[in-house]
Amino acid sequence: MLTVNAIAATSATDPLVRTTIERRDLGPRDVLIEIRYAGICHSDIHTVRGEWGEIAYPQVVGHEIVGRVAEVGGEVSKHAVGDRVGVGCMVNSCRECENCRAGQEQYCLEGNTGTYTAVDRDGTITQGGYSTHIVVDQDFVLRVPESIPYEKAAPLLCAGITTYSPLAHWNAGPGKKVAVVGMGGLGHMAVKFAAAMGAEVTVLSQTLGKKDDGLAFGGGDYHATSDPATFEALKNTFDLIINTVSAPIDMAAHLGLLRLGGTLVSVGAPPEPLPVQVFSLFDNRRSFAGSSIGGIAETQEMLDFCAEHGIASEVEVIDADAVNEAYERVLRSDVRYRFVIDIDSLR
Ligand code: NAP
Ligand code: ZN
Ligand code: ZN
Description:
Layout: E1 2-8, E2 17-23, E3 30-39, H1 42-48, E4 65-72, E5 84-87, E6 90-92, H2 98-101, E7 113-114, E8 133-137, E9 142-143, H3 150-153, H4 159-169, E10 177-181, H5 185-196, E11 200-205, H6 211-216, E12 221-224, H7 228-233, E13 238-243, H8 251-255, E14 258-266, H9 278-282, E15 287-290, H10 296-309, E16 315-318, H11 323-331, E17 338-342
Parallel strand pairs: 10-11, 10-13, 11-12, 13-14, 14-15, 16-17
Antiparallel strand pairs: 1-2, 3-4, 3-8, 3-17, 4-5, 5-9, 6-7
The structure holds NADP nicotinamide-adenine-dinucleotide phosphate and zinc ion (2 copies).
Residues 41-43, 46, 158-159, 162, 182-187, 205-206, 244-247, 249, 267-270, 291-293, 330, 333, 335 line the site of NADP nicotinamide-adenine-dinucleotide phosphate (NAP).
């Protein structure tokens, strides 16, 4: 076992604190990663605050992990010492069910093994990336292209794949009108990806405060959801809406923005239900869907797409001791556009 420094939540209400955790000895197919940066996803906050259900404390979160391979097990063939690698929201799956065999490990019928709060194969609870090292099965370790700086790559492992996957699945591309609701960690990546895929992109944010950024990321249009005129002006417009909001939204108003056959996909995961009146779906034969992260092969495809198109996350790098303050800023939608922890500050 390796004892490593980490920052953990000790309850749903107390600030995160410095601590140490144990990482398992390397198995034959395991990779030991020296973590360089870890992104702060809103899911980390929902989780440690118990908003998605009770968890066991202490708990280390963080599932936007990048670093360098420090050691490999005897049977590891996919990664070598020194490689730049990343780990996202899952560290294992059954590999045998229909969904795993289809490369959709995130939808493993046995439940994928989350990077944190999941029961690992040794019976322990998985601990995430706010720590100096992590041990992960080689099949769940991604290659991070050389051209993407580590800190700007970290958020791609969750915010990136979570928005890339539904945009690809619902064919965002030339001739398609895509709206992105909420321009935070996920939302700013959705704008960049949808624009790079060739779609016409509109940003729907609470205010116009981030308009210049939204247009710079590839948005062609930008509207405030706090202004009721937005929902009149854009009625029956979009083929695809990606909702990244961490709180409930007015579903009838947003569904009304879909044109014939359009789909609203929620990747935002508020603890409360998103109530839908079926008549909002009857008009224009609309669909309401959800989407969870992406498979391992698709995550690699997304990283390679980023390298090819010169895409990366906009980040604000912080030290480990600034995590609690960063959480408060995320909750105030005061993030441009992802906080990333410099893990060297934990060593
Ligand atoms: P984030 O950085 O906090 O961004 C969320 C954005 O939503 C904010 O920047 C804000 O955008 C908008 N927003 C926040 N509160 C709002 C409210 N009350 N009403 C309207 N808009 C509001 O969070 P994130 O890390 O991108 O995560 C977003 C959500 O996705 C979270 O619920 C997270 O758990 C979930 N998630 C899901 C998956 C998945 O696999 N499906 C993966 C990762 C994360 P504006 O300032 O532009 O209005
Ligand atoms: Zn996440
Ligand atoms: Zn499976």
